[in-house]
């Protein structure tokens, strides 16, 4: 679960500073911009929005290092293409973007897709053949390395996975700088294989998987045509925290797992030392440097991993070795080997990498929005589609979030204007939550399971859960907690980790984070999917918009169970969604529409916020983590809209939630179809 409670703090700051004249808080959308006072300082190079090449609205040519000042001066302002402009263009136009092309493919019926891809139905194929096809496809999808396979199986061999094919390497952080034609061609053949089945002959669950896979296959085709713009030092520390968490969560079931872990660990220094080279390649091939925020976050992550005190690679490893019950001398031998390799090989690699990436500081302090060149814009459209799982272009996505954000902002503004002191505790970050204040995370899950089964399905009584804090070295700013989806053959054990520093002295964040990750959030969702005879291949399809939208919805409904006034509950829910939405709007404006910081400041002013530096801080986050918050904002909005529609149609809420979870991760267009269809 990701969150930044910057919006309520910004609003509270507006109120606190009114008498001092430091900022202006706008309490009416109709106030004149002339009243807004001083503006935030912004980078001079971003003061103008730039014109896209002819025929490609909203995108601009890449400004490489070394371009002269005259070329900069030639660029003009734009706010991205309008929906009216897009509607006048033929989908077969040579200027059709990748996003337009693939949204068109995703809207096709299966018969239209067969015509497009030149496939005919094979009448000899049966539903049993489809089951066999799905099993083979799953085995193809399962990663052939010992680090990743544990996400799927405690015992891979028992599921038919050939362990002799497994490797120990961690891949590479270096990336391809051109479309992946080989992957594209392979995926075309895979898609044609599936389209040869007549889905009308399949049962409802098989039809669901057919539709899931069509969306997934087309999405992979889209991905293979894009250039990857995500840097190894992007976002919340980049690749290193993710790698570290993967090692931290590696499970030891037998002594063989210890041996495999050791062989995988040998590749860690290799991938760490690739990071500076990958940044240099991004500069050379794409003309972009990571922002100073990305670099500093990576430096901070490295610093935590260099510290041998409370180190997840040492302390957590030792604890898991002890849990295997090995002879003391054998266990000590493994521990010493692991610590020696980490201290003598991994830490020097981390230290050298930290020193090298420091050299990138100041090259492009604010970083480059993705839409500033064609390929980056295409990649952002891909990211947005992947994160949300719904067929929106960036303008439509902005409009969707903007409408809900203004509604939630009005709730907060009304609370401030009408009776600020009634909500003062919330805006100061300390609402009184009564008995919740003394509860541990496990107690919160138990309480919600007891109090919310009138609304949500129950968890199987055999499902157990372990809720523990992350080591300090793995705490990432902005990530409050996460849930580990259990292996398919060990589904009874569920693990939730939380960032104790991120929610220190914030009981409300602890409560909503645990509801989001546990019950009735992710833990309930994935366990209900497992209980409903889903195919294994469905567990390699993952759409964040649906899954995070569900978890946000679940956490907000948990707020209704708090012993607070109706007004306070409404404010808490509006603020939580608005926080996700405001960074998502900054993200789309920055990376998808090409708005300058000043243009976004004007947008904020028009809806009631004017705090110096606030727009720039949002842009810093957007450039560091493109599309990162879209599943939580747009995903929630679409989930809530669907539930409201189904309730209006008379569907029982508990039945509705059970069906939603049983469908599993899927794109919204497929979800809506099967929410109204028995599976």
Tell me what you see in this structure:
The chain has 679 residues and is an all-alpha fold. Among the domains are: 98-224, no CATH class; 239-287 and 292-358, no CATH class. The chain is 54% helix and 2% strand. The chain contains 27 helices and three strands. A three-stranded mixed sheet has the order 1-3-2, covered by helices on one side. A hairpin with an 8-residue loop joins strand 2 (481-484) and strand 3. The longest helix has 31 residues, at 328-358.
- How does the helix and strand content classify structurally? mainly alpha
Q: Strands of the largest sheet, in order across it?
A: 1-3-2
Percent helix, as a range, is 40-55%
Q: Total number of β-strand segments?
A: 3
Beta-strand residue fraction: under 5%
Distance between the termini: 29 Å
For this entry, give a set of tags.
54% helix; mainly alpha; 679 residues; 2% strand
Strand and helix layout:
Elements: H1 6-17, H2 69-73, H3 83-87, H4 98-106, H5 110-117, H6 127-141, H7 181-195, H8 204-224, H9 239-249, H10 255-265, H11 268-286, H12 292-306, H13 312-322, H14 328-358, H15 374-388, H16 394-419, H17 424-427, H18 441-451, E1 464-469, E2 481-484, E3 493-498, H19 507-517, H20 522-531, H21 544-559, H22 566-592, H23 597-607, H24 614-624, H25 630-648, H26 653-663, H27 668-675
């Amino acid at each position: 679960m990701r969150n930044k409670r910057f919006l309520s703090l910004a609003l509270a700051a507006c109120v606190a500073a009114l008498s001092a004249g430091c900022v202006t808080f706008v309490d009416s959308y109709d106030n004149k911009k002339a009243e807004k006072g001083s503006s935030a300082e912004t980078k001079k190079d971003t003061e103008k929005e730039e014109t896209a090449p002819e025929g490609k609205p909203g995108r601009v040519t890449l400004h490489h290092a070394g371009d002269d000042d005259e070329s900069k001066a030639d660029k003009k302002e734009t706010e991205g293409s309008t929906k009216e402009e897009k509607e006048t263009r033929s989908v077969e136009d040579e200027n059709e973007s990748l996003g337009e092309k693939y949204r068109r493919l995703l809207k096709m019926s299966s018969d239209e897709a067969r015509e497009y891809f030149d496939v005919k139905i094979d009448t000899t194929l049966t539903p049993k053949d489809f089951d066999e096809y799905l099993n083979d496809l799953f085995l193809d999808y399962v990663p052939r390395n010992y680090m990743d396979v544990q996400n799927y199986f405690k015992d891979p061999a028992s599921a038919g996975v050939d362990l002799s094919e497994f490797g120990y390497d961690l891949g590479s952080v270096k990336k391809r700088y051109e479309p992946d034609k080989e992957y594209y061609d392979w995926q075309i053949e895979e898609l044609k294989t599936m389209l040869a089945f007549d889905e009308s002959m399949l049962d409802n669950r098989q039809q669901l998987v057919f539709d899931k896979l069509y969306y997934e296959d087309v999405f992979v085709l889209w991905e293979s045509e894009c250039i990857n713009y995500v840097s190894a030092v992007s976002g919340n520390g980049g690749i290193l925290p993710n790698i570290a968490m993967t090692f931290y969560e590696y499970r030891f079931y037998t002594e063989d797992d210890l041996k495999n872990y050791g062989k995988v660990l040998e590749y860690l220094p290799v991938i760490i030392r690739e990071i500076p080279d990958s940044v240099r390649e991004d500069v050379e091939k794409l003309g972009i440097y990571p922002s100073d925020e990305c670099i500093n976050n990576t430096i901070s992550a490295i610093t935590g991993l260099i510290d041998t005190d409370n180190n997840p690679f040492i302390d957590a490893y030792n604890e898991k070795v002890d849990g295997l019950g090995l002879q003391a001398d054998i266990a000590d031998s493994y521990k010493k080997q692991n610590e020696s390799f980490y201290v003598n090989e991994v830490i020097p690699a981390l230290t050298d990498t930290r020193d090298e990436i420091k050299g990138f500081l100041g090259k492009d302090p604010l970083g480059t929005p993705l839409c500033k060149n064609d390929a980056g814009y295409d990649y952002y459209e891909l990211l947005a589609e992947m994160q949300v799982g719904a067929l929106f272009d960036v303008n439509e996505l902005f409009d969707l979030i903007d409408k809900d954000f203004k509604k939630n902002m009005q709730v907060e503004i009304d609370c401030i204007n009408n009776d600020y002191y009634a909500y003062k505790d919330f805006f100061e970050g300390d609402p009184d939550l009564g008995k919740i204040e003394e509860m541990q995370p496990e107690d919160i899950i138990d309480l919600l399971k007891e109090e919310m089964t009138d609304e949500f399905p129950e968890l199987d009584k055999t499902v157990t859960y372990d809720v523990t804090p992350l080591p300090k070295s793995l705490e990432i700013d902005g990530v409050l907690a996460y849930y580990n989806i259990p292996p398919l053959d060990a589904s009874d054990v569920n693990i939730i980790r939380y960032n104790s520093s991120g929610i220190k002295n914030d009981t409300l964040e602890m409560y909503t984070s645990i509801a989001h990750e546990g019950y009735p959030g992710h833990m309930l969702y994935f366990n209900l999917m497992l209980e409903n005879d889903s195919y294994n291949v469905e567990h390699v399809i993952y759409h964040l918009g649906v899954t995070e939208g569900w978890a946000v919805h679940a956490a907000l409904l948990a707020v209704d169970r708090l012993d607070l006034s109706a007004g306070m509950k409404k404010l808490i829910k509006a603020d939580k969604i608005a926080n996700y939405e405001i960074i998502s709007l900054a993200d789309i404006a920055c990376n998808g529409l090409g708005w300058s910081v000043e243009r976004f400041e004007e947008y904020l002013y028009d809806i009631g916020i004017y705090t110096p530096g606030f727009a720039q801080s949002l842009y810093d986050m957007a450039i560091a983590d493109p599309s990162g918050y879209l599943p939580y904002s747009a995903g929630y909005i679409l989930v809530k809209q669907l539930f409201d529609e189904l309730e209006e149609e008379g569907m029982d809420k508990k039945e509705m939630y059970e069906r939603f979870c049983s469908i599993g991760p899927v794109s919204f267009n497929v979800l809506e179809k099967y929410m109204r269809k028995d599976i």
